[in-house]
Amino acid sequence: MSKEYDVVIIGGGPAGLTAGLYSARDRLSCLLIEKGVIGGKITEAERVDNYPGFPEGISGLELTKLMHEQAAKYGLEAIYTEVTALEIKKEQKVVVTTQGNFAARAVIIAGGSEREKLSVPGEKKLTGKGVSYCATCDAPFFSGKPVAVVGGGNAAIYEALHLAKFASRVTIIHRRDRLRATTIVQERAFAEPKIEFLWNAVVQAIEGKNFVERIRLGQVITGEQSALEVAGIFMAIGLKPNTDYLKDVLPLDELGHIIINERMETKIPGVFAAGDIRSGSIRQTISAAGDGATAAFYAKRFIER
Ligand SMILES: Cc1cc2nc3c(=O)[nH]c(=O)nc-3n(C[C@H](O)[C@H](O)[C@H](O)COP(=O)(O)OP(=O)(O)OC[C@H]3O[C@@H](n4cnc5c(N)ncnc54)[C@H](O)[C@@H]3O)c2cc1C
Q: What share of the chain is helix, strand, coil (3-state, %, to 5)?
């Protein structure tokens, strides 16, 4: 066992960072474990307009950098490694990672979610070679080139708007005849001259020798098939909660989110879940932060008991 903590937090997004701030400020020994970038999904958002306190908006990266600084000031420790299992041994919980095991009196799971894969031929082979799941990360590689975005929700539109700053043309491919994105976000997309729409269309295959060259499309209504020349394709079709390693440990809902009560408590005493990973979340930064605070509050009560 590497070390024992009062609280171990899995995931360094807004939920985990807020839980870390509250726990560390309560003078609990607290470790946050992050497998990727501290800040989580919101680091992909160029501008966050709906997090209170920033009337001019703030980039997701900057917002979570501030959250991390604030929590670290009170003593939150953080390490970069992946949690692969959670073992429950009576009073003790053991968080298993690729860099050793960490014992905890309470665990807060704040692992968020990952982008869904499209699961079409060519997607796996060309991932990182034109197939991307993050426009904020990869858009500059497509300067002056045509790209496609798959999806019709807010995430897809944000991706398209960001890509329009670099790409020569952005085609949004959506399987329905209208977007799911909120009206104000849709309006921005319709006003962007570089963005065009392919309605009632699905991607059937992604082709290219070494990099993406074209995508094969099928019309949902007519069945007609076509090809679109693009250098890149960005997937924004939905999110899958990061709960694969928890399937036999905790009850999950039909989509894989962790089932909790209003205190963010799971079925196992001393194990909490917060943010996008929990069932019923509205999947926003502010709600994730709120969940993190609630989980930390009740984790402290649990430890004191
Ligand atoms: C493009 C985009 C734009 C968005 N814009 C907005 C917006 O304007 N306003 C808004 O309110 N929300 C927005 N969101 C949603 C917002 O990002 C999420 O609701 C929020 O980040 C959820 O926070 P979280 O802490 O629950 O999870 P996440 O932010 O997903 O963080 C979870 C973290 O856990 C880590 N992790 C997962 N599994 C493990 C493991 N096994 N071991 C170790 N670490 C693990 C992940 O690497 C990740 O860093 C946007 C999202 C996207 C993708």
A: 25, 30, 40
Best CA proximity match to 32, nearest among 114, 112, 102: 102
Cα separation, 162 vs 171, whole angstroms: 13
| Alpha carbon distance 9, 125 (integer Å) | 34
Q: What is the pTM of this model?
A: 0.83
Taking each helix axis from N to C terminus, what angle separates 183-190 and 154-163, rounded to the nearest 10 degrees? 30
Q: Strand 146-150 relative to strand 169-173: parallel, antiparallel, unpaired?
A: parallel
| 281 ligand 1 Cβ < 6 A | no
- In order of 175, 251, 268, the CA distances from 242 in angstroms are 26, 14, 18
The structure tokens 């809902």 sit at 253
Tell me how far the alpha carbon of residue 258 lies from the centroid of ligand 1, in angstroms: 15
Strands across the sheet with 232-235, in order?
131-132, 232-235, 146-150, 169-173, 195-198
Ligand 1 contacts CB of residue 16 (under 6 A): yes
Closest atom of ligand 1 to CA, residue 15: 25
pLDDT digits (tens, 9 = 90+) for 143-188: 999 999 999 999 899 999 999 999 999 999 999 999 999 999 999 9
At 32, give phi and psi (nearest 5°).
-110, 130
